[in-house]
Amino acid sequence: MRNVKMRNWVIGIGTPVLLLVAWWFLSANSTDPFFPPLETILIRFQELWLFEHFQSDVLLSLGNLFLGFVIAAAAGIALGFVTALVPPVRWMIDPLIHFLRGIPPVALVPIFISLIGFGTQMRVTSIALAALFPTMIATVDGIRSVSNDLMDVARVYRLTRKERVLKVLLPAATPQIFSGLQVSLQVAFIVMIASEMLGSSQGIGAMTLLAQQSFMTADMWAGILLLGVIGFLVNVLFSLLRRKVLSWYIGSRRLARAS
Amino acid sequence: MKASIRPYLFSILGVAAALVIWQVLAEAKVAGNALPPATTVFTTLATILGTGTFWSSLGATIGISILALALAAVAGVVIGLLVGSFESVRYATLAVLEFLKPVPPIVILPLAVLVLGPTAEMSLFLVVFGCLLPIVMQTVDGVQGTDPVARDTARSYGMGEREILARVVLPSAMPYIGTAMRVAAPAALVVTVVAGLLGGGPGLGQNIYQAQAAGDYASLYGLVIVLGVLGLLFQGATRLAERRVLHWHESYREVVP
After folding, report:
1. Which member of A255, B115, B125, B141 has the lowest number of beta carbons within 10 Å of its beta carbon?
2. Alpha carbon of B12 to those of A159, B3, B151: distances in Å?
3. Which chain B residues in 87-146 lie under 8 Å from chain A, judged by CB atoms?
4. A18-59 pLDDT, tens per residue?
């Protein structure tokens, strides 16, 4: 048993390392314009992102992502609550929301460019609006799936409406809200890149696409690498946050499964 | 009876109100020419619908999405069964899959355009890349979730490994795969549009880019509306297909009183 576990660990850590080593050596003397040596890519990575363009592009992109996502999260949860708790509002905006959700979020970017221009404002607006829907829809679903028993108990204990919303509905809907937020974060990341690639000169996405168009392949690879790492890290950070906020829920689920 | 009509009345009211607000804002020129009135957009849309180029773009978008989805489904299920069945393969791919999972296809779009150019192959490649991993991951989960008792029973009935895979493991993984497909189908459409919009691949994405670049805002809005309808159709179609294909499974069975 122990041996198997050890073996799995070795395989688990060994394979990615092996792949990277293979990439390094196979590309070492590469003259293929599309696939430059990994060494060159890493050197360009260091030159570009650490720290020449760190403030002007990396921080700018991340700032837009963060701001857009926070706006989307706050507005999505608030709108979700209103929609779920006030039936006429739900009936009124349900078809619109479903229609807007059907539009690929990136397709909204050209509209925002024509309305607001190419600036930071357009990027944050695009990110926020595109990322709004997953959170909002998950919030509505979360609230509507709260059991009637729970609401009856809350009513029997004579909780006020405010208490019912904040102390019963909100915690009960949090797990669903967090799955919505996770999707929103993905969408926000995609729209961040798209809004930079569509005719802007700043940001990681813009630099990566520009490098591709001017055949600076190593720079393009460096950009792809950075975007990949950011996508991964942002997701890890979010998972940590989720685990912290939802520790009670994850624990109770584990208990339920064990019994 | 009256109560059941009310939601629809409100829905119609909501849509009508949105259209009126749009029309009023556009007539007031709050955003200059960038926000055309709803009436202009819909007449332009009617003209666009009469052109052959629109239908060939629409065909390209749908064709690429569905072909790529099918490729990703076949490859994803095969890889998923492989990864899920062998512990060592699962551990070997764990780190790579976990790293690639949150990386959207738009990240490697520049690379795809560089190597393949602004072609249908490029779009196809990006969509497959985007849809493959979720299907693989869900299939692996499905294989892992197979009831060990069912597996042992099959073994004690003398089924071979291959038969167990086809008759026990795959059916029990089907709902997981169904969920993955339901998520992947709209995503395939989105990625096809992104590949056209940012990478110049054929389809509606490219038309949107051209409309925006030319300042043809009425066409831009019209095409985005088409995409919204298309997105809804994709979502509805996959949900229907899922229910039809998986009607035998517990979680989809309808309760007959």
Report:
1. A255
2. 36, 15, 53
3. 87-88, 91-96, 99-104, 106-111, 113-115
4. 888 888 888 777 777 778 888 888 888 777 777 677 777 888
How confident is the model at residue A46, as a pLDDT?
Answer: 79
Q: How far is A157 from chain B (nearest CA, A)?
A: 30
pLDDT of the residue at A78? 92
- Cross-chain Cβ contact A16/B95 below 8 Å: yes
Give the chain A residue whose CA is nearest to the CA of B209.
Answer: A110
A161–chain B nearest CA distance, Å: 24
Tens of pLDDT, residue by residue over A90-134, are 888 888 888 888 888 888 888 888 888 778 888 888 899 889 988
The H-assigned helical ranges of A86-119 are 87-102, 108-116
Confidence of residue A143 (pLDDT cuts 50, 70, 90): confident
Instruction: Give the model's pLDDT for residue B75.
Output: 94
Minimal C-alpha gap between B35 and chain A (Å): 7
Cβ contact B220–A110 (<8 Å): yes
B11 touches chain A (CB under 8 A): yes
Q: Which amino acid type is present at position B95?
A: A
Residues 6+ apart with CB under 8 A from A203: A57, A60, A61, A64, A123, A192, A196
The whole-angstrom separation of Cα A166 and Cα B126 is 43
Interface test with B, best of A190, A226, A230, A242 (most B CBs within 10 A): A190
Q: How far is CA A256 from the centre of its chain?
A: 29
State the average pLDDT for chain A: 84
- Asked if B5 has any chain A CB less than 8 Å from its own CB, the reply is no
The predicted model scores a pTM of 0.86
